[in-house]
Design brief:
By secondary structure, the protein is α/β, with parallel strands linked by helices. Helix content is 41%, strand content 18%. The chain is globular. It holds the Pfam family Methyltransf_25.
Length: 271
Amino acid sequence: MDLMSSIKYLQHVGFFTFTTGILDSRHFSQRQTDVPLRVLEIGCGPGDFAHLLKNHYKEKISLTALDPSECAIKQAQSKNIDVAFHNKGILDWQPSQPDNEYDVVIFTKSLHHCDELEKCVQRARNLLAKDGVLLVEELQLDNMDTVSINWMFDRIDLLTAANRLSSHGLHPPHTAIIDRTIPGVQRWGDFLQHRTCHPSQDVKDAIYSVFGKENTKLLENVPFMHYFLPRYNLEDSDIGKSILTEFMAQEDRALVNNTIKSPGFNVVAEK
């Protein structure tokens, strides 16, 4: 089954490649046991990233995934894959065994939503086995400069004009993103002003505080803008896949050439 033929999976290819690279180099290249690697994903949403990981590693990993949204977990469970999905947040959930420890804990675009930020990071560290690793995919929307904002909105506006994107099913401040009557820089500023999530620096500081800077590696400027396309209802079809693939290729080139700054970053923290 080629999951990447669907844009709901294809959009995750960057962090998926990052994650599998870490797991392969740190764990599977050195493991001398058939015992599955224990992985916990926090903020799994409808389970697409978990599906990718399980489909890739199969019986090599034992995967548990959490999300506080009942609707999202129902979507995840409907995939009928061998993943233990739980309708819980990290502070509310208890493993089936009190001493259950995980080799890898992953926050997928979810840490900035956690109310008690440092407490959640500490809980994640407590769940890690000795030498376990925390992987974090996060966003720093305030990292975008004017050139980067205009670069993104030029492409979003072109796709909106071609009726490839819409705000259907979304609510403010997200609906303003594809309002072409408002200049891109103003739209972005309004969007940031009305968001209630933790700033990116608070996320980084919480990880540094719990794991220590010496045990934390930060990867800045990772591709992230492409996530807006599926978010704004890009159709899941051959055309949609071609559009998303080209957008991702353009974003990669612009980042390599230092033409734009990305609103995304990844973290690797070792226990």
